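Module 6 notes. Inverse folding takes a fixed backbone as the condition and produces residue identities as the prediction. Think of it as a translation problem where the source language is geometry and the target language is the twenty amino acids. Below is one complete input and output pair. Work through it position by position during the lab.
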């Protein structure tokens, strides 16, 4: 991660260059590598006050899980089990939030 803040005294503004690079190697059959790069340029007015500012939101991964709830043993019977249970799929996302703080 590379953050470069630059202050312009004539405009009373901050320019922040943010560059984030990451790679992830998956151990599947193809041994592939996933790369993602994020580059943001932010312009802040120096006369205004702020504590924290969200500068980037990056989705890291997404997982899903099948949930089965119902009457024990009856919801496991083939074909008839759908009458005695509820099936749903839940999706979990891992997100990286990057903030900048004036302090």
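Target side of the pair, the amino acids:
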């Amino acid at each position: 991660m590379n953050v470069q803040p630059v202050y312009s005294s004539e405009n009373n503004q901050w320019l922040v260059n943010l560059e984030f690079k990451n790679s992830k190697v998956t151990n599947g059959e193809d041994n592939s590598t996933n790369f993602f790069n994020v580059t943001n340029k932010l312009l802040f007015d120096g006369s205004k006050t702020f504590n924290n500012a969200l500068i980037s939101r990056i989705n890291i991964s997404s997982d899903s899980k099948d949930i089965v709830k119902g009457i024990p043993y009856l919801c496991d019977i083939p074909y008839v089990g759908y009458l005695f249970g509820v099936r749903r799929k839940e999706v979990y996302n891992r997100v990286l939030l990057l903030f900048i703080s004036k302090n």
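Reference fact for the lab report: Residues 23 and 29 are 18 Å apart (CA to CA).
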